[in-house]
Amino acid sequence: MVKILLTAFLISLSSFAQAEFRHFNEWTNREKTLFTSYAIASYIDHRQTRVGLRNGYSESNSLIYGSNPHRDKSIIVNSLILSGTYYLVGTFEPDDFNAVLLGGNIARWGVVIHNDSLGVSW
Q1: pLDDT above 80 (res 58)
Q2: What angle is formed at CA 95 by the lines to CA 92 and CA 97, rounded to 5 degrees?
């Protein structure tokens, strides 16, 4: 019975799976720039976190990572966030997700600049 219900549920979602999805090469230049900028900031923040932890700093975002996160956890969390962002940009109409991307960029680059002001340079 569970298999039948699961199959019915998946069939009901099939129309969503067939929806138009725009991949990176189909995005507008603004979407590409904002996403790439966010990805770069994510990488720099990850590297700053690794350097900071090796030099006696503690992670201030301990709710997600804990006070001394393992490198793999940071990579997994950042990959999931970037994957979700990629998916959302691809499912929205062109340039409809730009405000969210811009907000994410401001927040992420703010963290990078703050880390640099603490002495964890990039």
Answers
A1: no
A2: 55
